[in-house]
Amino acid sequence: VVEARMNSMLVGRGYDGQPAIPPRIGIIMGSDSDLPVMKDASKILTMFGVPHEVRIVSAHRTPELMCSYAASARDRGLQLIIAGAGGMVASLTPLPVIGVPVRSSSLDGMDSLLSIVQMPRGVPVATVAINNATNAGLLAVRILGAGDPDLLARMSQYQEDTREEVLRKAEKLQS
Ligand code: RP5
User: What's the pTM?
Assistant: First the structure.
């Protein structure tokens, strides 16, 4: 129900054959092994009709690419970055950065969580729960929604539909 309604609200926002509009959000990650987690952020942004790009940008393996990506993000029209398994880009862009800790090692994601949430003063990174790229997408929609009434209206509708869906499931369980 939620996704169907969202899709019905996307007509006219580049989703009905019109030319695609430039990305507003960049979803980046250090490796393609993060993609199974980070795809959930892309699903949310697609559901809300927020054009976005998905890139493999590693602070450890391709530091120069990470630096150029972050430094050019605002001028390319991005409004926010969702960073999987790393928040270092936050020191290279004035844009809001949402960090997604990824459970990709024997340390069960704690290594990734601490590396993101413990950023030094002056380099803020909003952090969501380990592997919770869905919440990163929803938080990104809310942040952009502060300046986009249509987007915020879709967030309100999503919340209403989600509540109804939860109540329906609860009633079904109790019946
Ligand atoms: C990080 O190291 C990546 O973002 C990934 O979470 C982890 C393992 O990378 P791979 O060895 O799977 O490429 O930099």
Answer: 0.87
Give the up-direction half-sphere exposure of residue 62: CA atoms within 13 A in the CB hemisphere.
Answer: 13
The mean pLDDT value of the chain amounts to 90
Q: How far is Cα 162 from Cα 92, in angstroms, rounded to an integer?
A: 36
Closest atom of ligand 1 to 86 CA is 4
CA of 138 to the centre of ligand 1 (A): 24
Does ipTM exceed 0.90? yes
- Supply the angle between the helices 35-47 and 133-145 in degrees, to the nearest 10: 30
Q: State how far the Cα of 71 lies from the Cα of 1, in Å rounded to an integer.
A: 39
Q: How far, CA to CA in Å, does 127 sit from each of 31, 62, 101?
A: 19, 23, 8
